[in-house]
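Troubleshooting entry. Yesterday's outputs looked truncated, so today I'm pasting the complete records for two proteins to confirm everything comes through intact. If either block looks cut off, that's the bug. Protein one:
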Amino acid sequence: MRKEIIVESFTFDHTKVKAPFVRNCGRVVTPNGDIIMKFDLRFTQPNQDIMPTGAVHALEHLLAGFIREEVDDVIDLSPMGCRTGFYLIKVGESNEEEIKEALFASLQKVLEAEEVPAANEIQCGNYRDMSLADAKKYASKVLKGLK
């Protein structure tokens, strides 16, 4: 008998939300008792405003460092394939408000950035497809919506 697989994001009703938002979308306790948490950092309204790849890619590079300055024990910050936001995965307990505050601070740093980190052929597999201007545009939109 096969184990039933449930993908949380496929059970989430994308028509009933108002972006931007921060949502706790997963919590796992490992066999050793460690807590792994997953947060949905939604930037744009699903199925309406999709970020261009250059914006997503630049935000991924920028937030990779900035979010780690604000949040301890980050495992990963990954873009959603639908290009409407990012997933933040971390070790340890956090609540949505803490993550929202950290995202707010990180996005303010995006607005101040003068370049995208690791935007070169050695450190990135697609370094030409980034837009700092678009990253700042979406950072600004999210900051206004999170207030």
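Protein two, checking that the full record survives here as well:
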Amino acid sequence: MPDMSPHFRIAPSILSADFARLGEEVRAVIHAGADVIHFDVMDNHYVPNLTIGPMVCAALKPHAKRADGTPIPIDVHLMVKPVDRIVPDFAQAGANIISFHPEASDHVDRTLGLIREQGCKAGLVFNPVTPLSYLDYVMDKVDLILIMSVNPGFGGQKFIPEALTKLREAKRRIQDSGRDIWLEVDGGVRTDNIAAIAEAGADTLVAGSAIFGPGDYAATISAMRAELAKVKR
């Protein structure tokens, strides 16, 4: 299971990787210093795009480890509706964390329980317009809160500044709960804004095009870590 202790984690999103050589790309970003592999699943129903499924997750699982064999968590973000049917498939495929959107579940509490029953950490995802009030009844079952700082569906979008306010509120809720919950952000995360995002409360930072676009993964991740080192929490 993934380490859920508090520190900054950089999670490259393979949505922006070269799909013709995904295994190689996963190994490359891990070698460059990635902490988590973010795996975006879209169904062309809940969001207007179609990406990858459990078989790809299973194929990448052997590649998700450091040179010494230490496994790297696979963080599966389900942008699908309905969601319950596909959860066991991803758990069996090797996902460590599975998160979903409350709008995609008829019973949020039940879906969170299903994910945990499968041996995975459970996450709840909030679109820019989705209120955090969904957490009022399920905070005891959430291991990860993912704040979308773009509207889901496509990579390469610009960060929505209002997400910083939602991050601060989510961080307050986590502190009040007294639980060890990751606070993740996804969308438009780049070297020039990663510090501000972390200062707002995020500890897990998903970046796709910002890492895979320039080509030098190690240089980009190193630059991100240098910015994170300036953050005072």
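Both blocks look complete. Sanity check on protein two: The chain has one domain: 9-228.
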